[in-house]
Amino acid sequence: MTIFSVYIINKAGSLIYHYDAPNSGRPAVEKTFSYPLELVLKVFDEKVTVAFGERDGIKVGHAVLGINGIPAEGRFLRDKREILEVLASEKNYPINIKFGRPPLSINERIMLASMLHSLFAIGSQLSPEPHSSGIRTMETDTFKLHCHQTMTGVKFVVITDPKQGHVDAILKKMYEAYADFALKNPFYSLDMPIRAELFDNSLQSVIEQADKYGISNI
Amino acid sequence: MSIKIDHEQLLFHFQVNIATFALLFSEIVQYCQNRVHTVPELQNKLSELGQSVGSHMLDVIFLREKGYKREVKLLNMLIFIKSSFWKIVFGKEADKLEQANDDDRTYYIIEKEPLVNKFISVPKDKGSLNCAAFTAGILEAVLNGANFPAKVTVHWHKGTTFMIKFDESVIARDKMVDSR
Fold first, then answer.
1. Considering A74, A100, A126, which residue would you say is the last residue of a domain?
2. Pfam families, alphabetically (chain A) (predicted)?
3. At A79, which CATH number?
């Protein structure tokens, strides 16, 4: 709940582990529309997204997740009809469309991780203070991103609620879990994606502990 | 004239950080894995390495714990292994020692979470590999060295179970000792 996701990036900039909290607040907005549709929709990145016409909680960038209860897969519905065609013909109205932020695919996550890696490098160069090591936190009004970079170049990135406290302790515990269950595992090769059950379990317990103690402390 | 050494202090001062041991053991497993092609072969190789450890430890521990007396009775030997030996090697006693219901040649030592497996997550493609085969090798060497010939294998049962199968001669000899 207060921790939204965890990303671990290796020293070359590729994603070796990611975790998303199950109910990390991606609410879907479902509304009934009548012809003509006031939103302007465009196909972007194989998904039908809102390009113009923000209203009622439906923001630019939200994708069509479903029509009349049938889930959407890319540009088509599950029953193989093309979404834009369905929305263009008047006989389908009134129509019930569900909008929301589309879930990230694994490729998108890998791209985000590499972008973060480059941003950290640029951040350490741009800093007015000499001997800067990189970006520590990034704050917006809906989330806060914390990063801990280890001496070997591995970055632990945690995205949390802006009010979450003691994230340094959380990051340290995750580093310990990595040192224990990934580095001492004979079946793990360095800089590869982490696939160890004990590591998943221990990360889960760190996150649960953080959630249990809530916003004020760990 | 004899030199009295404070055994308790000596034993408890020789402690190794678990992280150090875990990293060394992880290297041992990787070393073995590079030289074999199948999972049973890997377990065998780990067991062999454990046997050299066990044969070295046997004399030292017996000398320190039991003075100069040898164990001749089977049950006493097993109890000694489960409690003192395990405590010296791993820092705690083994969880359970059981005898098989139908077979008086087979005994089981059960441990929920063996120390050597503490940081190891076995991937799915390695099937039923249990790195506690190393510990099974230690046990086998200790029993064979103390003149209780046996075979020790490791299984995933109630955590980790070491199945000890003694030779017929051991059981027969034990019965004779008891009946005297």
1. A100
2. Sybindin
3. 2.30.42.40
Contact A29, A57 (CB under 8 A): yes
ipTM summary value: 0.79
B12 burial level (CB within 10 Å; 0-12, 13-18, 19+): exposed
Domain interval for residue A17: 3-24+105-217
As for how many domains chain A has, the answer is: 2
- The answer to whether residues A84 and A132 belong to one domain is no
Rounded Cα–Cα distance for residues A114 and A13 (Å):
5
B interface test, pick of A17, A184, A203 with most B CB neighbours within 10 Å: A184
Whether A112 and A162 share a structural domain = yes
- The residue of chain B nearest to residue A184, with distances taken between CA atoms, is B23
- When scoring A175, A183, A185, A190 by the number of chain B Cβ atoms within 10 A, the one with the most, hence best to mutate, is A185
Verify whether the Cβ–Cβ distance A186 to B120 is below 8 Å. Answer: yes
pLDDT tens digit at each of 218 positions of chain A: 588 899 999 999 999 999 988 766 567 778 888 777 788 888 877 788 888 877 777 777 788 888 887 887 777 788 777 888 877 777 777 888 888 887 788 888 999 999 999 998 898 888 888 878 888 899 998 889 999 999 898 999 999 888 888 888 999 999 999 998 988 898 898 889 998 889 999 999 998 888 887 654 44
CB atoms within 10 A of CB A207: 21
B41 to chain A nearest CA, in Å?
Answer: 16
What span, in angstroms and rounded, lies between the C-alpha atoms of B76 and B81?
Answer: 9
Single pTM value for the model? 0.80
Closest by Cβ to A184, choosing from B23, B33, B126 = B23
Q: Are residues A113 and A185 in the same domain?
A: yes
Q: Min CA distance, A183 vs chain B (Å)?
A: 8
